[in-house]
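= Protein in question =
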Amino acid sequence: MRLLEACDGPDGLEFRLTKDLDDGSVPLYAILSHTWGPDSEEVSFQDMLNGAGKAKAKGGYDKIRFCGRQARRDGLTHFWIDTCCIDKSNSTELAEALNSMFNWYRRASRCYVFLPDVPSPTDPEPWTPSFKASRWFTRGWTLQELIAPNTVQFFAKDGSLLGDKHSLLSLVAEITGIGEAAITGEPLDGFSLQERFSWAETRQTKREEDWAYSLLGIFGVFIPPIYGEGRENAERRLRNEIRATVAAGKQLETREGHFVVPYLSNPDFVKRPEPFEEIKTQLGYGSNRTDGTSQSRVSLFGLGGVGKTQIAIAFVYWLRQTHPGVSVFWVHASTTERFQQAYTSFAQQFLLADEEDPGQDKLELVKLWLERKNVGRWLLVIDNADDAEIFFRSKNTPSDNLSSSTKPLASYIPECPHVSVLVTTRNKQTGLRLIKQRRPIAVGKMDDGESQQLLSAKLDTSTPEDRRKLTTRLESLPLALAQAAAFIQENCMKISAYIELLDESFAEVLDTEFEAPGRDQEIPHAVMQTWKISFEETKRQNPLAGDLLSFMGIINHQAIPREFLTHYVRLFHPEPRNTRSIRLATALGVLKAYSFVTESKSSNLDMHRLVHLSTQRWLEERGERCLFSGQALQILTEVSPDTAWDKIEESTRCQLESYLPHIPPVLGSSVIWEHKPWTASLLSHLAGYLFHHRSYDRAQRLSEKSLEMRISLPEDEKSNGTLQTMARLVWIYIRQGNLESAQKMAQKAYEISQRVSGAESQQTLASMCDLGAAYTMQDRYEEAEELRIRILETAQKIGGSEMDPATLVSMTNLAGEYLEKSKLEKAKDLQMQVVQLRQDRGLGEEHPETINGIDLLSKIYEAQERYKEALPLALRVFEVKRRELGEDHPITISLMARLAPIYAALNLSREFADYGLKGIEAATRRWGEDDLRPLAHMAMVATLYSLTFQFHKEGLELWLEVFRRMTRIPGHHHRVTMALAAKLVYYQLESGLGKEVLELGLELFEASRKALGEDDPETLAIITTISSIYFEADRYEECLEWALKDVEAQRRLLGENHAEIPWRLLRLSWVQGHLKRFEEAVASAEECVALSERVLGPEDLVTLQGMIFLAETAKTYRLEGGGRRKEGLLLMQQVLEVSKRTLGPDHEFTILARRYIDNWLGKEQPKPSSGKTKEQNAELAPAAQKVENEQPLPTTEITEGTPSSSTQPNDEGDAADTEALLRPRPRLRDSFKIRSWSKKQKEKGV
């Protein structure tokens, strides 16, 4: 190669030829591209040898001067011009120059294109039209001069720079018809032979043979020039040489392997290290292997849109850079036609086929050529190889799917050591078959860092938090992220706005087409459309798989139980039992192969959320969503239980709970009204679950909807489900405190069951039981008791014997009714009979019915305060349940909660504390520290500690811990925290904190009143607490105001006749008496006694306390001038008789009543003690008869706030006993027994 060198001379810049340089001594140089003028005007090699004078006289010297000066400006001293650097008189040198020229242009640092027919950009007239019409674009040799150099600059006739081939790329591509990729330096073997020939088709050369010679570098071949042979012969020799080179396996481009890849490198590609490195390792290009023969075939499989093709593109470009001698051939394999098209194009590009023989099997030609040892190493990329039937003919392949070739396409994939194959597929099964069952490479979704990188490259102004939200919504799926980024860029919107669009119309947004690098233009780019193709292919390949996919698209996309699919196949694809499992396994194999579903260790199936949404969209487009919604409804109805949840085994319950998330999506579809029987049943099942978990409002709505559907059915379609739904509604209303609705629903169910089944049927019996429960909750005890007796009689008639299970249930219900009414002896006698009858039936000691009967009997003993009898029964129940269910089971924990107060009542401190703390530990293990259930247990134990007056400090510490934990639970910072704070105030009071507690209570009242309202249950509870604070501190003036508020508030909340009202009236009477407001005190006490007798019974302790206080107040009122002594003594006599009958003659309350009477009559009476005496057991004479004949008792001065001295015990011990018995406060048993449900307030909060 010979160059011109620019050097300084006496007359300025001078140019001289260098010697002929070899490749190793060639300096950096520029090169000139121009169009030749007349030969006489061009400076030749001989002109430069003969001296500058002659050369300068020619017009072409201006081009030499321009090139030299421009090279100097660019820091170059050497340059090359074809007119004067080649000795054309030397045929050998000329031939070498013609064959080397492409590489000389490629190696040049700069290529200057001088355009004498283009005006300066500073001229008034625009230069672009002249540029487009320039002669330079029509000449043959300038083709390689445009393509080969890296830097090509265009200059106007005055030497002004117009731009380079990169800045003018679109304009140059438009003028030449050459693809931008070829102009900017993409390897030419990526362009077919036909395309490269087309670039020169309209170009002209001065000598006709030069048309062929100017293309030598374009095709990388070498032929000697023979001027005079003509263009046709020159072109024939060129094509023959190309064909011979291909046949010999030589490269058609200098130094590098062939690169037949239809995609440019993606500058925004985010490297996925795991699959990328795995490809390198399996194909032998990893860090520890370089021979490329480790495994000849590798498959990338994964869900459509996870980036398999992008990874493959990135890999082939990495391979081209690191192993340039390896050739790459990319084949689209989404259809048979595209596979054939790729092979045919390859055969034409490499001139493998004889154009005069159209019948040749071009696929076979390509395969055989690639398998030849002398063609070098190749990587064959088979992209989108999803359909197995394209590659492997099966007996079920329709004839119209067959290609013109009789052989399956898989047979055309080369099998030889020097050809590796990389397959990308959505279908794992197809990938496995193509790579001969070797280990495939799974491609999943991106991790968080990769997703962030992808979005930040496209949305550089977004924040990490916004990008994180978007990746979460799109579940890090690369295609969805790329689609989102394109949409955001095109519409100039923020990520937050795009997320709002997704929330409004998720499927529509992801169905929007967009442009993306590295995506096949013949395949839809939108996520939804991408998967639609796979869905259609799945349904065609395996109809059952398509139907299962459609069914799963209706229900929840996560944790899909396999039992659902088993039921589906049985109902909608009936097969013989011996083939059903095989068909299901095969269909699931197809779905898993396409990555539509994945299987967990528990055998449940999961769908990608976006696949799930796309499936729904696909079903809507096919008009099949209603069909599969109806099928899903039927399946869920079949597998859901139609029984009470508390009667289901724990293991079965856990399994059934896993079904629940799949119900709401089905019930949300419009198809439910077309299948009312199934829908009604499913609604009822779900309501049963919600009822079991105390979500009563939701259970109510679903049950009412279910009942509405059942009632609208024709008579022949109605079933027992109507009455079952009505029965559940009764108990839902009861739990909500809506007792009137409960009673009306129960009455209606009772009437329907009588009409449908008759008066003496199991259905009617069940309806009567529900009605009886409603009466009880309404405090209509007489009607409830009468109905329970009728129920027992009906059960005996139906069963014919007391041994009948229904009869025993009715007897148990009646015993429970007696317990509620405090008819404890009747309850005890009846339940003991039930327990004995169950034993007579032969039920074991640990049978559930036996244990339940013993449990109720222990509760009756506990209500009678016969704790010694209650304890062994409660322990027996606890031990059986602990063995059966374990210590951490909710039932076992609740039994611990029952044992603790029994031990407390028996003053067994160690056992009481032990069971209380054990219950807390078990509940915490079961549900965790901050769950409401262990906190409720802890609160119960804290309350017990305080009410037993033995563990004040421990109780306060527990309440503080409950309070601290409760404030951490989200959603409970107002209501529950205030309620707990109110209790905390009360128990701090019990520990002796006076002023501070009162201030905290008043502060809580104001906060609760503002946050929750004056009539909120928690606000009213704080009123009760503040009243108690003043009462316990003997601050009766302040207490009176709050006690009145308390009574009025509870009446508004609970109703006039609620069981919680009497003891509040008693406390109000006590306060009024201490303030000498005797008329008010007597009125309050009389109201307390009347109400307590009515709602609690004449034998209830509150009733007896009220009667004693009324008697005492009446007597004190007498001493103040009221004159009601006789009534007071008669009341005390009544108290004595009731107490003796219900509590026993030796009970301390009985002894206290006797002592009051004796003191009034002036008798001496021994102090109460725990032992029995004859005096204590003797009957009192009717004291009331003596009262009439006695003289009035002398008036004694009574100090404010103390009872009459005539009734005051004589020592401090007696005073303490009296205070403990008569001072009105909630008792231990009443603190944990819900006696009635609210009539006006639905259950709120926890």
